[in-house]
């Protein structure tokens, strides 16, 4: 789990990384080809998929999403935030296939198993103070 390129194991429920759903952040453009992962993927630039890449979970792209090649698959939710409402088409080119599948189960698992989201955060001792009796408006 400590290796940066370990993006979890969406296929084998016996694997120790099956319940590992990392939060993956790319500060710029990201090009992915061949492989798989799961969790929450945040791309601050463009995301380009060029064949045989599978991701299960949530994807947030602040640029454009481009897909080409054979066998790209996203299961969960894909949010392309960098394009205007009039430009929401997926740029899929070439003689390949791209499968975008909405899955509420994958979305829920990304929220539950992403350790940074699932870990309880202890409250400070005085995290709430009632000031209504002080006459402050």
Describe the structure.
By secondary structure, the chain is mainly beta. It has a domain at 23-117. Helices cover 10% and strands 36% of the residues. It contains 2 helices and 9 strands, in the order E-E-E-E-E-E-E-E-E-H-H. The protein has a 5-stranded parallel β-sheet, covered by helices on one side. Strands 2-4-6-8 form a 4-stranded parallel β-sheet, with no helix packed on it. It is globular, with a radius of gyration of 19 Å.
The major beta sheet can be summarized as: 5 strands, parallel
Measured by DSSP, the beta-strand proportion falls in 35-45%
The largest sheet has its strands arranged as: 1-3-5-7-9
Whole-Å distance between the termini?
A: 50 Å
Helix content: 10-25%
Total number of strands: 9
> Total helix count?
2
Structural class: mainly beta
Rg, Å, rounded? 19 Å
Q: What is the helix/strand order?
A: EEEEEEEEEHH
What average pLDDT do the residues reach?
Answer: 79
**Low-confidence stretches at least 5 residues in length (pLDDT < 50)?**
none
Overall geometry? globular
């Amino acid at each position: 789990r400590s290796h940066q390129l370990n993006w979890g194991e969406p296929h084998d429920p016996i694997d120790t990384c099956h319940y590992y759903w990392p939060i993956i952040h790319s500060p710029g453009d990201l090009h992915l080809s061949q492989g798989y992962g799961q969790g929450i993927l945040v791309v601050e630039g463009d995301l380009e998929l060029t064949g045989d890449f599978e991701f299960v979970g949530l994807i947030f792209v602040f640029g454009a999403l481009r897909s080409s090649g054979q066998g790209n698959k996203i299961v969960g939710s894909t949010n392309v935030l960098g394009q205007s409402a009039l430009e929401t088409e997926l740029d899929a080119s070439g003689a390949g296939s791209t499968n975008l599948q909405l899955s509420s189960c994958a979305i829920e698992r990304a929220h539950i198993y992403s350790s940074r989201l699932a870990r309880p955060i202890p409250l400070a001792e005085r995290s709430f103070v009632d000031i209504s009796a002080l006459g402050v408006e």
